[in-house]
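Subject: sequence -> structure tokens, single chain

Hey, anyone have a minute? Need the predicted structure for the following. Not urgent.
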Amino acid sequence: MIQIRWRWLLWALISGALLVRLWGAGYGLPFTYYNDEYHEVMRALQLGTGSFNFNRNGKGGLYLVLFIEYGFYFVILKLAGVVGTAQEFGKLFVTDPSAFYLIGRMTVAVFGATTVAAVYFLARQAYSTAAGLLAGLFVALNVLHVDLSRLIGLDVLMTLLAMVSLSFGLRMIGTHRRRDYLLAALFAALATTTKLPGILLLLPLLVAHTYAVRTASGGVRSWFGSRDFWLAALVFAGVLVATNPGIVNIAGYTRLFADPGSDALDDDALVVMADLAGTASPNLYVFYLVAIRESMGWPLFLLSIASLAYACWRRTPADVVLISYALVNYLVISATTSEVAYYPRYALPIIAVLLVLAARGLAELLDVVPSRRGLLAAAVIVLVLAMPVGQSISTAKALIQTDSRTLAREWFESNVPSGARVLIEGGKIGPMRSTVPLRDTAATMQRRIEYWRMTEPKQAQLLEYQLAVHQGGGYDLELVRAGSVGSLDDYVARDVEYFVVRPKVFIGSRKAGTVGAAFLERLRSDPRVSLVKRFDGVGDARLSPTVEIYRLHTSRSEPDSRPPEPSLLTK
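Reply:
Had a minute. Here:
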């Protein structure tokens, strides 16, 4: 009867976690304001065209899942007569990518809810059923885990696979079964395929192997002579190469460390990090502690730290395995990411382990309470979860509102004539995904196609798809970066009439420096320029940033036929 009750509670936790993570799945669509989502979706579609990126060897896994799902979606649409060819499928994505992003977001939400089950089994394997249920509850409501489970990204899947691998690693100690060795290696390889930091699982698995040898009364010879150990090593290497062939591409590692790609610190990331750490260049050992505390709230964070100290004192095999994994992750992300990329999401595996330890600490504390255990448990749970639940409610409210950037686009298209020349934050072929999604005119798009055709044909091909479904209208967009923006007089000379800016990026970004702040101040103070519309943000780092639209009050010349400036597109 007790076991049945636990199972019902577990299923309730998993179901609740899934519902929370599916909330707001359609936020922002058909626009997506996050770079990582775009990269994963495009990589899956790229694989569908028969092209494989061997240089992106530090990330994978999720795009393989999306590739399969998009394949089924294509078959369904073809059978329904919606599309007939792969080219029509591609045009459908360009016209309205909402379904593609919904598929990806719901997939990650399922992975996030499954993580609740994974930490339950891990904590139960390591400590007790009560610890497992508490760990599942803590993960189900963790602010960072919930937020990441609503987006197409790699960290949720990597953390899920890591928790499963650790569970089999702990089983190795007690069972000595080959099956547990092989499954631990399998899931460690899949975690590494998903994201390169998954390779840090090798340390706790080696610790688990050491305990397994010791409990079998073996020595150094048994440690190295274990057939199960070497078979597990072969499984790890084989699965890793099979699922991520680019892992053997040495040139890819050069690019990985020289150019971190989508994980590089863009303007938005720098603003978020500055808000979280209080400085544009934080001490990352402190930064990640702050990120962990923000995801948990003070009460649960303090409980996890106290439980970590308790685990260090007890030093059971499970304690040592889990602590070794959390510690090596903390040291690596704090010591190696300072000027390359630093995001709170890098701490997600550490958070999962700390929540397991917190659950164990609370479960054992309640065990020693002589009376009214249930009432005390309920009071403590309410106390430690009040802050994350409050934060989740605040985010949920924001998710049912229309993003400020979407509102700004709607206002712009209703009040600004098409063809107007507009300065906006941008990349190579269009506005940055984190700003207002204005459209180019067909003529401007054609100029960009001609510019990129010889140097970056893939960029030109994407623009050609967009041009094929272009419905007219749009704006002559002047694409800039906040850190390389020119003077106001430069843009007056180029007949720019409107300026679309996010003040926090121009002021708060380290990359923008004083250049971005000076340009924004000039917009606000120059008598030729007026603020015509402002959309206030909601305060969340990811949702609805403040957007300001300025107009230059001078006579505007006809749009010119000059090609986009290379310096503005490549900086």
